[in-house]
Amino acid sequence: MNPIREERLHYLDNIRALAMLLGVLLHAALAYSPMVSSVWLTADSVNSVFFDMVFVVIHTFRMPLFFLVSGYFALLLIEKRNLKGFLINRLKRILLPFIIFLPLALLVVFITISWAIDSIDTVVPILDYMAKKTSNQPDIQTLHLWFLLNLFFFCLLLAIFMFSMPKLVAKFFSGVTAIHVLILLPILMISALLTVPSTPHSPPTKLYPQLWSFGFFGLFFLLGCVIRYRAELLDEIAQYVGIIWIVGVTSCISFYYLLPEPMSTAETVLQLKTGIPFSWSYLILVLLEAISAVYLSLALLLLARQYLSQPNRAMKYFMDAAYWIYIIHIPVLFWFQFLIIDSSMNIGLKFILSSVVVLTIGALSYHVLVHNTFIGKLLNSNSVKATSHNS
Fold this sequence. Notes:
Strand content: under 5%
Order of helices and strands: EHHHHHHHHHHHHHHE
Number of strands: 2
Largest sheet: 2 strands, antiparallel
Oligomer: single chain
Radius of gyration: 21 Å
């Protein structure tokens, strides 16, 4: 591995935390988005295309950017702690929280849904559909914690390759150029996205590995590893920053306007089971999604490097709390949005209120119940300092 210099890269910590916290805003917005109103559990009877735009934009870059940064930290951790230490750390920080919190999240969400079905007056299409399908076996999924299981799969695969063929991995990492990233990477993602049964892509929430995730999120994770190994790669990419912003924004706007009209709950559920038939128009849509994901993620990473590189005490606290806030936010968000769903309040105020309440409960519970406890140590200990390579 290349020699390292002990200089903390705060922008990587900060943007990873912001990507998690943006998940709260994204999921809060889905309740008021016409695009997912047929399948989202807290879908309000009133919605607005504004929240469609919020959803599409954040959804396009948030998790790709998160996995990119996670790949950077994964290779850094291997450099500092070797493969054995890396795997032990990933078991404690990723797999163990997944095992602990998924059953709890599922239980709370199940109780909340059962209460909502009996208590609210608003007709929520997916709840109505679920109530009529009670005889079916429930499909146990990973909810919003899918990213933990996928991240662990990626880390495990990285460790296997680093152990079995380190020279080949190093040769591959050192050979990646900015042109490879900007031209070939979106193309490589097409085949994976074509197998996703929805667009924008639905998350890989099964309890087993879903191959398309490796061909999409896994490639962002791999890119993060490459950027860690070849520190100059990000500088090479930065030379095209203007083009990256133009292409990223243009492709995202085009993707949004080419999206098909929302379907009914039954049609959406059927599509999720059978997939989307191939067509040239769908291929173009998938290509635009891949391009916008790659280019917006890189644009925002470069923006963070420019403006979020300085230490900030408030940001540091939310960076530490972000993991906990994200873990609990879906059960809390569903509870609160069901609580206000029958209100005649403006949906903009509902969105703001639900976002603020969830973030506040998350931050306060972290400070009072988690920060200095075993859970806090589990989620935030054994962190590794982000450093830059000597160049």
